Amino acid sequence: MRHARLAALIFPAMLALAACSGSSSPAPTAPPASAAPPAASAAPSGAPPAAAGSAVSIASFSFQPAALTVAVGTTVTWTNNDSASHTVTADDGSFKSGTLGNGGTFSQTFATAGTFAYHCAIHSSMKGTITVQ
């Protein structure tokens, strides 16, 4: 009888402990208000650093994004991710990259406000615009 009483006391305690030691993880907590935001990742080695929103990919015979808006003083970097060669050529002749092979990059700093239309001199259907505000 003594063992039955002991078992009656220990068994509920063991159940309670088992329920508390489950594998569920605690709820995430918010970082303190003074925590700094995560640092931006560095540009890949060999590529010029590009500010967020100032990169254009050349892929699938198109500029991506085809229209980009940046602040005055921003440097935009185009990277050719196609197997074919391309150019980045301003419609008004104000800048041109020359031929960019796969992995090639071209950067242009936009010092004045305006809209700058450009194209690929090799593939005339490829067009884009940079709006500088």
Architecture blueprint of SSEs:
Layout: H1 2-20, E1 55-59, E2 62-64, E3 67-70, E4 74-80, E5 89-90, E6 105-110, E7 114-119, E8 127-132
Parallel strand pairs: 1-4, 3-8
Antiparallel strand pairs: 1-2, 4-6, 5-7, 7-8
Characterize the biggest β-sheet. 4 strands, mixed
Radius of gyration, taken over Cα atoms and rounded to an integer in Å: 29 Å
**Fraction of residues in helix:** 10-25%
Number of DSSP helices?
1
Strand percentage lies at 25-35%
Q: What order do the strands of the largest sheet run in, or round the barrel if closed? A: 2-1-4-6
Unreliable parts: 10-51
The CATH architecture assignment of one domain turns out to be: Sandwich
| CATH class descriptor of one domain | Mainly Beta
Distance separating the two termini: 87 Å
Average predicted local confidence, pLDDT? 76
Structure, described:
By secondary structure, this protein is α/β, with parallel strands linked by helices. Helices cover 14% and strands 29% of the residues. The chain contains one helix and eight strands. It has a four-stranded mixed beta sheet, with no helix packed on it. The protein has a four-stranded mixed beta sheet with strand order 3-8-7-5, with no helix packed on it. A hairpin with a 7-residue loop joins β7 (114-119) and β8 (127-132).
